[in-house]
TrEMBL record:
Official protein name in the record: Uncharacterized protein
Record-linked InterPro entries: CFAP141 (IPR029375)
The organism's place on the tree of life at top rank: Eukaryota
């Protein structure tokens, strides 16, 4: 008698769990379908925002690359100027601390 009730209770619980899992799967499928049906206007707006972010990042990266190239060029020019001065017997003034 007790075993029968326990078995019935377990079966009822299993059925409820199965129902909950089916509902979760249906909800996930519905969400994925609605995501795919986004209106073209909102899709364009989202793509526009993403494009502007990408352009901003690219601009920053390009600025960093240019800055590094200019620093390297400035260092090279300073070295060349220093060599020219040393050939003449002169040097840059550096203050000692």
């Amino acid at each position: 008698m007790k075993e029968r009730k326990r078995v019935e209770k377990d079966e009822l619980l299993a059925a409820r769990i199965a129902d909950v899992n089916r509902e979760k799967e249906l909800r996930l499928k519905a969400e994925s379908v609605t995501r795919g049906q986004i209106s073209p206007c909102s899709r364009r707006a989202r793509e526009s925002v993403e494009l502007s972010r990408e352009l901003t990042c690219a601009s920053k990266a390009l600025t960093e690359v240019r800055r590094a190239a200019l620093q390297e060029l400035l260092l090279l020019e300073h070295q060349q100027h220093s060599e020219e001065l040393s050939r003449v017997g002169k040097a840059f003034y550096t203050q000692r601390i």
